[in-house]
């Protein structure tokens, strides 16, 4: 699914109004009705809704929602900024409709303290939407601060007030802290970054029938990985195929004390479809690997750490988990990078070795995939102010070195040399444990070996990994789930695709 900027969303609204055609007020009504349906399905009629409305069309949505909820039998109060009487046309019409209903009281933002809300209150934030274009003024700031201190359920309409749709926060910005965000039609970039996404609570993207023609034709470099895309990428195994059709994967990993990383990566490669799987590990891990992964072939290199790298051109190599940073490993790894031309997958210590001498970055074979977490990324490419800037730096570096960067985070981003960005929305905090990255490297390497393109392997790989994590959390809890549980769940994820 494409992600648009605030300006592109405005253009999409406008295009829909002109071409469907539909009047602006009817479009607001459609958006509000969609929210009301969601609310009706999630709250019972004893709830009392306190709806806070701004002056733009986000406010218009709020007024309309208040009216619809009232007609559905909910108790509703509406709050406005009496001092600011300049409303958008749609907001003005909808506020007038509210004033005509005697059962809905309209109060000023200032009155919330005198009123004291009922215990069954639900707060609805319809103050600012995607039209926010500057820092919030003091009176609204005070309101949001006060509301954030109340412990009632909080719903934001379209976007929590105070967030920009497509960029980071201003300094000292106050943002409504939602439990649920009901957002129209598109994911917004700010929902997907940690500094801003933390204000959104659970995100629900509600379809409001904006123009498909506009959405198809409008260019964007930013995407959310959705299941429809994954179905297009996934290739079921042909009945007449044999193991030679699914590639050869070699995992180069492990050192004394870190053989577990090699085991996880190798098992993950085996469980995500690789035809023939090799592990190149130091001798100290030989018996462990052979016993826990009997399907893999083991090649030994060095005693306690890997001392030479394979150069078989028909294998796809995934290098790094638990490799260690011994100087002998580094020397042969760098030698290998200088001579090897096929795409490889690099993670963990492979990246730490490169970070010790970043000149070698330009020797990474074109179209390789690297999978750094934010700290590893910083060691490779330098620090940035926030995750929005980090993403833009990653786009630049992807292009410069002709590599795919899988920037691991709560919503992992896959960045391509063409500067496209794919945000992953599967996965959960139970995966924030040592070993998860080793599993991801195994999956992506295996997919690349099976002839998925680097973009497909990275996008499909992060999605599979996250989905397996979601299944594992459901069975074991986020606390108790282990990276090995992700590997066990891969089968169930493939089953939903077949
Ligand atoms: N345009 C449309 O057709 C649709 C719009 N929709 C709603 O409309 C919203 C966007 O509406 P608007 O573009 O009117 O903007 P908003 O309702 O987000 O409000 C911003 C308004 O306040 C002003 N403003 C911006 N920053 C401010 C600040 N810091 N302090 C004080 N005032 C500030 C802006 O000039 C604008 O008038 C969406 O988020 C969505 O909720 C939906 O109803 C769907 C259809
Ligand atoms: K809002």
From TrEMBL:
Subunit structure: Homotetramer.
PROSITE patterns to which the protein is assigned, alphabetical: YJEF_C_3, YJEF_N
Cofactor(s), by name: K(+); Mg(2+)
Chain positions recorded as K(+) binding sites: 58, 125, 161
Matching CDD domains: YXKO-related (cd01171)
Domain YjeF N-terminal, first and last residues per copy: 9-216
Entries under PANTHER family matching the protein: ATP-DEPENDENT (S)-NAD(P)H-HYDRATE DEHYDRATASE, ATP-DEPENDENT (S)-NAD(P)H-HYDRATE DEHYDRATASE FAMILY MEMBER
Keyword annotations from UniProtKB, A to Z: ATP-binding, Isomerase, Lyase, Metal-binding, Multifunctional enzyme, NAD, NADP, Nucleotide-binding, Potassium
Record organism: Kaistella montana
Function: Catalyzes the epimerization of the S- and R-forms of NAD(P)HX, a damaged form of NAD(P)H that is a result of enzymatic or heat-dependent hydration. This is a prerequisite for the S-specific NAD(P)H-hydrate dehydratase to allow the repair of both epimers of NAD(P)HX. Catalyzes the dehydration of the S-form of NAD(P)HX at the expense of ADP, which is converted to AMP. Together with NAD(P)HX epimerase, which catalyzes the epimerization of the S- and R-forms, the enzyme allows the repair of both epimers of NAD(P)HX, a damaged form of NAD(P)H that is a result of enzymatic or heat-dependent hydration.
Family (UniProt): Belongs to the NnrD/CARKD family.
Name by which UniProt lists this protein: Bifunctional NAD(P)H-hydrate repair enzyme
Binding site for AMP: 408-412, 437
Annotated cofactor note: Binds 1 potassium ion per subunit.
Residue ranges of domain YjeF C-terminal in the record: 226-497
InterPro entries from the UniProt entry: CARKD, Nnr, Ribokinase-like, YjeF_N_dom, YjeF_N_dom_sf
Family matches, as SUPFAM superfamilies: Ribokinase-like, YjeF N-terminal domain-like
Chain residues that bind (6S)-NADPHX: 57-61, 129-135, 158, 261, 322, 373, 438
Record EC number: 4.2.1.136, 5.1.99.6
Catalytic activity: (6S)-NADPHX + ADP = AMP + phosphate + NADPH + H(+); (6R)-NADHX = (6S)-NADHX; (6R)-NADPHX = (6S)-NADPHX; (6S)-NADHX + ADP = AMP + phosphate + NADH + H(+)
